[in-house]
Amino acid sequence: IAFLLYFSILLPATMAMTTFSSLQLLAKYQLNKLPPGEKNTRQQILKLTALVGELSASFLVHAPLDSPRAALQDLGAIDSVVEWKAPGECCRLMGGILFQLALAASSCELSLHECIKEKIKLNGRKYPVELCKGKSGKYTKYSSQTGITKTEGQSIQNASEGEGEQLGDESVDSVVQSITAFATARHWARFHTPRNIVLALVGELGELAELYQWCGDGVQNHDADFLDKVGQELADVGIYLLRLSYVCNVEDIGKYAILGQSDESN
């Protein structure tokens, strides 16, 4: 099986842009290898938290400090505020986090790609370009215009309704480019420094952890409404992670995610 996996997933990953389907397939394979007690979603989220902690520690050492917020306010639709290429250690950790997100999604029978795709569409409705250009406020500031509140219009099951944001093919890089276009159109790149995005990612991970904090281990809740919330929080972490990879000039984070698992497959 490991031999076939190498030629069907790992080898192609070294030759072309990584796809979400190959990432999810490998995640399912690795998940099935785990002992029964380690397959539940809560376990995978704890592992995800540990990896994000490692990334934060690495950024404390390597990432450049940010300018004061006031200095960023007058910048236009620039592509990036900070020209910084993450060192190999940070790249490997980002790849590991992406793979762990795929594992967590697989553990509750969700597609990470579909979750991210639908959440980008929903975010397009929550943050219309004409309302939030150059602003970093919460979507609730625009609720009177969008009709989306904390309790209404939040499901990604309905995110395909309306125009939203369009995604290309399912390569990881194409989703990175879609997220970049989303941020650039809204003049948000000024706020998207490496350290800012890591903190935003940590915040979204906290919301994901909150869903499982009192569940106990070994208990899987597959209620549709609960899974909708889980999918959205996985997507939020994933979107910030993919945005971070772009800001830090990581070439094909998906490749780091898959090749980082090659030793596990032997």
Question: Describe it for me?
Answer:
This protein is mainly alpha-helical and 266 residues long. It has 12 helices and no strands. The chain is globular and about 50 Å long. The termini are close together. Residues 158-164 have low confidence and may be disordered.
Key phrases:
266 residues; mainly alpha; 0% strand
Percent range of helical residues: 55-70%
Beta strand count: 0
Strand residues, percent: under 5%
Overall residue-averaged pLDDT value: 86
Q: Spans with pLDDT under 50 lasting ≥5 residues?
A: 158-164
In DSSP terms, counting alpha (H) and pi (I) runs of 4 or more, how many helices? 12
Radius of gyration: 18 Å
Distance, first to last CA? 9 Å
Based on helices, strands and strand pairing, what is the structural class?
mainly alpha
The biggest beta sheet reads: none
The H/E string reads: HHHHHHHHHHHH
